[in-house]
Design a protein that fits this description.
single chain; two-stranded antiparallel ribbon; 5 helices
């Protein structure tokens, strides 16, 4: 087996395992980062890896009521004013004798959990590719050695 054939086998091995390795490194580290930042379970459950024509993407598609919640929880928000959606919400009903026409709420802090997880995961992925490729190369060496019995 020549160098070109060995290179093809190694490239095929890496390509065939890349999605699994990305899930085992980048995806897991991003989930850990989000958990460490105390982000909601909904944020964490929407973290995923998607494949496209250029490779793989780390995404979070958490949207509710047309609001990009993943963006809000990852990049933070400023203090902002909220108001009731309808007139019925203005009155507390039997539970609350008061009503609110709206009020200011504190913004969310920036966590960048996606970016932090990606950075840690990328380093782990690089190490995973190196170690797995090294193991695979050893099997190629054994597979293609010339073996002659000496009697």
């Amino acid at each position: 087996m020549n160098d070109e054939q060995i290179t093809k086998e190694i490239n095929s091995f890496v390509s065939g395992n890349m999605e699994k390795w990305i899930n085992d490194t980048i995806l897991k580290e991003t989930i850990r980062s989000a958990q460490a930042a105390n982000l909601p379970d909904e944020f964490i459950s929407h973290i995923k890896i998607e494949q496209n024509e250029n490779g793989f993407l780390l995404v979070n598609d958490w949207i509710k009521d047309d609001k990009p919640l993943a963006i809000y929880f990852n990049y933070g928000t400023v203090d902002h004013y909220i108001k009731p959606k309808n007139k019925k919400a203005l009155h507390g009903g039997d539970k609350w004798p008061y009503f609110s026409k709206g009020h200011y709420v504190s913004g969310l802090p920036k966590t960048e959990a996606m970016e932090n997880g990606l950075q840690i995961g990328k380093k782990k992925l690089e190490n995973k590719i190196k170690s797995e490729t090294k193991k695979f190369s050893r099997t190629l060496e054994t597979k293609y050695k010339v073996k002659v019995k000496v009697r």
